[in-house]
């Protein structure tokens, strides 16, 4: 069972895979993506790289708690490409990912059933070739305090194994920590109870 505050994604782009059917070639690509600009860049690059291809069909899913997704058949018959690709994203239970299947037409029509099978297989192959990692959904907090309270703050950070993502240690200190969602409330209370130490959610 996946805990409520974790999700699966990929951190690196695997080597593309190739699926062939009746002279048509289907190249499968997977990219980690955090927003729509990432997706646009990957698609533009692939279209340049495969400028002689016939179709660049894709599906993506972004987000952890609020999900955004999109499918694109790019000229193939309705729901014969984008949805089968998206189906694999769902069956692998993965997010923050873009999968593109680039098709070179081989002169023989595959029919809708053949297309669904080809796009689904290419998407499945690239996901099987990907390194899938589980990450936690985190909340970031800013802790503000005077230098004299440094030891107290650092002791709690060490005891609770908190992840520091940014720090400015001068007379007025600020530390940004990233806390797993399921532990966030307890961490917030710990700092909130302390005199002269302020914690705010970012």
Describe what is shown at a glance.
InterPro entries: Impact, Impact_N, Impact_N_sf, Ribosomal_Su5_D2-typ_SF. The protein has 202 residues and is α+β, with helices and mostly antiparallel strands.
Which helices and strands, and how do they pair?
Blueprint: E1 6-10, E2 17-21, E3 24-32, H1 36-49, E4 55-62, E5 68-72, H2 82-91, E6 97-104, H3 111-128, E7 132-136, E8 138-146, H4 150-159, E9 163-169, E10 172-180, H5 181-192, E11 197-201
Antiparallel strand pairs: 1-7, 2-3, 3-6, 4-5, 4-6, 8-10, 8-11, 9-10
Helix pairs in contact: 2-3
Protein name: YigZ family protein
Family: Belongs to the IMPACT family.
Pfam family, one: Impact_N
Number of strands: 11
Strand order of the largest sheet: 2-3-6-4-5
Succession of helices and strands: EEEHEEHEHEEHEEHE
CATH class of the largest domain, please? Alpha Beta
Low-confidence stretches: none
Count up the helices: 5
Shape: elongated
Q: Can you walk me through this structure?
A:
With 202 residues, this protein is an alpha+beta fold. It has two domains: 6-134, Impact, N-terminal domain (Ribosomal Protein S5, domain 2, 2-Layer Sandwich), CATH 3.30.230.30; 137-201, 2-Layer Sandwich (Alpha-Beta Plaits), CATH 3.30.70.240. The chain has five helices and eleven strands, in the order βββαββαβαββαββαβ. It has helices spanning 36-49, 82-91, 111-128, 150-159, 181-192; strands at residues 6-10, 17-21, 24-32, 55-62, 68-72, 97-104, 132-136, 138-146, 163-169, 172-180, 197-201. A five-stranded antiparallel β-sheet has the order 2-3-6-4-5, with helices on both faces. A four-stranded antiparallel β-sheet has the order 9-10-8-11. Strands 1-7 form a two-stranded antiparallel sheet. A hairpin with a 2-residue loop joins β9 (163-169) and β10. α2 (82-91) runs parallel beside α3 (111-128). The longest helix has 18 residues, at 111-128. The two termini are 29 Å apart. The relative contact order is 0.18. The model has no long low-confidence stretch (mean pLDDT 94). Residues 22-126 form the Impact N-terminal domain. Belongs to the IMPACT family.
């Amino acid at each position: 069972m996946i805990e409520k505050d974790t999700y699966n994604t990929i951190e690196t782009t695997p080597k593309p895979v190739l699926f062939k059917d009746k002279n048509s070639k289907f190249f499968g690509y997977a990219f980690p993506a955090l927003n729509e600009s990432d997706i646009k860049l990957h698609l533009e690059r692939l279209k340049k790289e495969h400028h002689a291809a016939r179709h660049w069909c894709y599906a993506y899913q972004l987000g952890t708690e609020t999900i955004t997704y999109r499918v694109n058949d790019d000229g193939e018959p309705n729901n014969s490409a984008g949805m089968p690709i998206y189906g694999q994203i769902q069956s692998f239970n993965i997010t923050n990912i873009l999968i593109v299947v680039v098709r070179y037409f081989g002169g023989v029509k595959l029919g809708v059933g053949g297309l669904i099978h080809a796009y689904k297989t290419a998407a499945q192959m690239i996901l099987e070739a990907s390194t899938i990692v589980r990450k936690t959904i985190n909340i970031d907090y800013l802790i503000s305090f005077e230098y004299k309270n440094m030891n107290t703050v650092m002791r709690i950070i060490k005891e609770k194994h908190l992840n520091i993502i940014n720090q400015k240690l001068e007379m007025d200190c600020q530390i940004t920590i990233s806390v797993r969602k399921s532990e966030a409330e307890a961490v917030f209370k710990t700092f909130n109870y302390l005199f002269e130490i302020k914690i705010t959610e970012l």
